[in-house]
């Protein structure tokens, strides 16, 4: 019977893990036990932070819109309410880009939203 040399797949798995740990600090980059734990944890962080990035970018769009519509005497929530009542379906990303790069077009959208809102009662 011919001799069978083992370990090819385990070497490949170790190499894959160590390649993923490239750039890590200390033993985490070159010891398989430490590297495996570090890579597993880094994958969890990556998954979590892809979701968090989406949340933070949306929050940035909202902050930009709030600042832009306050120049027209509205708040963000009143602006979004006006857009919904006017039947304008533009997402926050595009609205934010319009506010930055095309102020005239954004002003027209704000005017539509304002027109769709009921007039506020005069302050006493």
From TrEMBL:
User: Its GO biological process terms?
Assistant: ribosomal large subunit assembly; translation
- Write the record's keywords in alphabetical order, separated by commas: Ribonucleoprotein, Ribosomal protein, RNA-binding, rRNA-binding
Q: Keyword Ribonucleoprotein, does the record have it?
A: yes
Record-level Gene Ontology MF annotations: rRNA binding; structural constituent of ribosome
Taken from the record, one Pfam family name reads: Ribosomal_L20
GO CC term, one of those recorded? ribonucleoprotein complex
Source organism, top-level taxon: Bacteria
Q: Which InterPro entries match?
A: Ribosomal_bL20, RIBOSOMAL_L20_CS, Ribosomal_protein_bL20_C
Summarizing the function annotation, the protein's role is: Binds directly to 23S ribosomal RNA and is necessary for the in vitro assembly process of the 50S ribosomal subunit. It is not involved in the protein synthesizing functions of that subunit.
NCBIfam families attached here? rplT_bact
Q: Which family does it belong to?
A: Belongs to the bacterial ribosomal protein bL20 family.
Q: What is this protein called?
A: Large ribosomal subunit protein bL20
């Amino acid at each position: 019977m011919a001799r069978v040399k083992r370990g090819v797949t385990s070497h490949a798995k170790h190499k894959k893990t160590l390649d993923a740990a490239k750039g890590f600090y200390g033993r985490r980059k070159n010891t398989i036990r430490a590297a495996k734990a570090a890579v597993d944890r880094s994958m969890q962080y990556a998954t979590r932070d892809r979701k968090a990035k989406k949340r933070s970018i949306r929050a940035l769009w909202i902050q930009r819109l709030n600042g832009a519509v306050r120049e027209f005497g509205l708040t963000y929530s009143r602006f979004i309410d006006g857009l919904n009542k006017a039947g304008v379906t533009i997402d926050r990303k595009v609205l934010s880009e319009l506010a930055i790069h095309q102020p005239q077009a954004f002003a027209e959208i704000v005017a539509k939203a304002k027109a769709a809102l009921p007039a506020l009662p005069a302050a006493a």
